Amino acid sequence: MNTGSNGQADAASPTAENENDTAAALGSRAPAFIQARRSLHLPWQVGVFIVGLAVVVLGIVMLPLPGPGWLVIFAGMAIWATEFVWAQLVLRWTKRKVTEAAQRALDPKVRRRNITLTAVGLVITGTLLGIYFWKFGFAMPWNIGE
Q1: CA gap 43, 46 in Å, rounded
Q2: Distance between CA 12 and CA 1 in Å, rounded?
Q3: Rounded CA gap, 42 and 109, in Å?
Q4: Do the Cβ atoms of 61 and 99 come closer than 8 Å?
Q5: pTM above 0.70, yes or no
């Protein structure tokens, strides 16, 4: 870090550079020749939006079905973030919240609480399954007669 004669950081400190890089990172990441021509850039943006929309819709369809629904939704958002500032901001916010949640999950009190809740949930589920198997055997619920 560069310091002046009074011991304070100069304007060209690494922190200031990182903030400038962050601000410069927002916006279109289309190739320069496409950004330079509006007649190419608008169709490029429409194409990126349609591809991102298709991926997000696929992710939404995967939420109730087997598959990595949230992962696909975030992939669609990442596609949009290559071209749209709003998507870049949403991804930054999401990344910050996920990082905060990961840090909270590492807190010993929270871990103990989560382990306790999981154990209680497993005991309740096991008890209910035991009662079901005791009463009906290994028959599927839709095969049980009145």
Answers
A1: 5
A2: 8
A3: 51
A4: no
A5: no
